[in-house]
Design goal:
The chain has one domain. Helix 1 packs antiparallel against helix 2. With about 80 residues, the chain is an all-alpha fold. It contains two helices and no strands. Helices cover about 80% and strands about 0% of the residues.
């Protein structure tokens, strides 16, 4: 039962991260659409940079969580004879 609870928490966390990634991608796309062709205000460039950095952090975090979840899944489904000593 505890294993299922951890798996459900991992899935929810991953879903939240994916939702956050999509939100950031949408915000970046909207900001890029609003950028003027000339004389871009520094505040807009700074905001774009901050959003892109946050997006990168979320993507790295999601990748790390997926690796941990996969390793956890393997540990639960791997026969005991295959486990390291």
């Amino acid at each position: 039962m505890l294993r299922l609870r951890h798996k459900a928490q991992d899935v929810r966390r991953c879903d939240m991260s994916n939702t956050r990634i999509k939100e950031l991608e949408e915000r970046i796309a909207e900001l890029k659409r609003r950028l003027p062709a000339h004389s871009v205000p520094p505040a807009m460039l700074q905001q774009l940079e901050e959003l892109e950095e946050e997006l990168e952090r979320e993507r790295r975090k999601t990748t790390g969580e997926e690796k941990v979840a996969h390793a956890h899944w393997l540990s639960l489904h791997q026969p005991e004879s295959d486990l390291p000593a």
